[in-house]
Amino acid sequence: MAKVSAMITRSRTRTSSKPQILQEDYVKGLRIDRIRQAQDEESWISGLKKYLVGELRDLDQGEAESYSLIATNYEMDLNDLLFYCPPTKRTDEDRDGLMRLVMPEALHQDILHHYHASLEGNHQGVGRTYQRIWDRFHWRGLYKSVQRYVGECVDCETGKGRPTISEESPGDIQATHPFQIIAMDHIPSLPRSHKGNTELLIWVDLFTGYVIAKASSSRTAQTIAESYEECVFRRFGASEMMRHDREPGFMSDFFRAFNKILGQRQRATMVYRPQANGSAERMVQTITRALKMYVQDRDQKDWDEYAERLTFAINTAQDRIRGDTPFYLVHGWDPRSTLEASIPVSSTKRRDRDPRRWRYQIQIHYQQARSQANQRLREVIADRADRHNDNVQPHQIQAGSQVWLYLDRVKEGYARKLAHLWHGPSRVVDKIGEHAVRLETGGTEYRLFPVVHVSKLKLVKEYPDRPRARITVNDSDRVDFDEILLPEDSGTPDLGQDQFEIEKITDMRSDKRTRYGRIYREFLAHWRGYEDPSWVDEADLNCGALLHEFS
Fold this sequence. Notes:
Layout: H1 24-41, H2 43-53, H3 61-70, E1 74-76, E2 82-84, H4 92-97, E3 100-102, H5 108-117, H6 126-134, E4 137-138, H7 142-151, H8 154-159, E5 181-187, E6 199-205, E7 211-216, H9 221-236, E8 241-244, H10 248-251, H11 253-262, E9 265-268, H12 278-294, H13 304-307, H14 311-315, H15 326-331, H16 338-342, H17 355-386, E10 402-406, E11 422-432, E12 436-439, E13 451-453, E14 457-459, H18 481-485, E15 502-513, E16 519-527, E17 534-537, H19 544-550
Parallel strand pairs: 3-4, 5-8, 8-9
Antiparallel strand pairs: 1-2, 2-3, 5-6, 6-7, 10-11, 10-14, 11-12, 12-13, 15-16, 16-17
Helix pairs in contact: 5-7, 6-7
InterPro entries: Chromo-like_dom_sf, Chromo/chromo_shadow_dom, Integrase_cat-core, Integrase_H2C2, Retrovirus_Pol_polyprotein, RNaseH-like_sf, RNaseH_sf
GO molecular function: nucleic acid binding
Domain Integrase catalytic: 174-334
């Protein structure tokens, strides 16, 4: 009879010495080993590495000829890792700066998750996610992989965007240097956090796109002024102009006097045209959507733990209009993420640099980047002022299509700004004219009229699978990175006095829904060796056999 191990807690006793798994060099070495082994398991990477080191006896003539065509764009470093460098006429020193680590298919999901779904990824779109990965890593079909991963991200599909509405372009105010003009807005009426915050103030530099966020407990004029002085003025000085909407806290005499002391002009939007503060309004949407992805508390009270930290991902992502990252346009250099700091993202062959020459090149590049951003902003603003977004394309929704349905109603007690408003997916039964469809609602939790307008729908993105080629490796020869990092007592530990095992489950109760529409469930667990049972959340149980037996 098999023993069922369930709901086991760890002993509270811990050694005082620093575990080996927490040592930076040890973890970095494991990651290098994992990448190298995964490269050796992928056929084309393994063959190319053999070609580069001269082991031609293991390759047939066709393989050798195909590798010879691309070998000039690849190198191996001292750790036997394969790097890619795009074709260029630059010197070897400049070429070394372009080297990108070749990631095998087995690790694609890890990289995509880090740069999209993690807190440093911020669930940003295809363009920004691709640019951040492309700067450091390489694999064939990289853009398609990013496009598919982002397109199939359920959090992004259900939490981002509204039905498309055609509107006029923003105004023509243009800044010529960092923090000359800043836009200001706020996200009001958020759930009261554990720290007592209910508001999120946001500032956006119109020249660089650099964003600053500050959580606060109120939106009075004094609170806004104090937050601005702490987050913006102390770091970047006073601006020439501040753009904002007609929020009472922004329009008060106190805030006007504060700006007058700093020599800043205020430019409020017109009542009939809030789009004039489009940069700040757009950033409110971006940060709100990002917060949806990371809020974990059932009552949404932990949002301020992530709000200010998420600005790092926004400020270090490539800006399509300006041609560089906001962080670089402000500071003149780009920071590294935690992943980039712990693995060799550039070749280890040529590391020597002349500091003076490096500083001179950085200054030249920074001046060029600012000049380029200024020119691009001027062209984009002129283009937007001359055209209207009235070119509506016909929709592609047909009978049988899988679609997301936009519902802007939120359950009482939940903040609409942090809720996922796209629901589904649902199947289209048939079309009713050109502007409405009938959805299949039977067997779902939704109680709504099945005929909806197409403006409330968007298609579920679908991508075909690509063929794969892997080298067969024995499981005993494969390094299990996660298993190595586990503590020694994580196998099948003996049950101590502070460790417990579930004997049986006898009852179940449900609570309110989560932000994804799922229902919280708790089970009545009877513990081995104890008389009194207790209610345990479904997420804390790892006894699948007992759950199956109970159901």
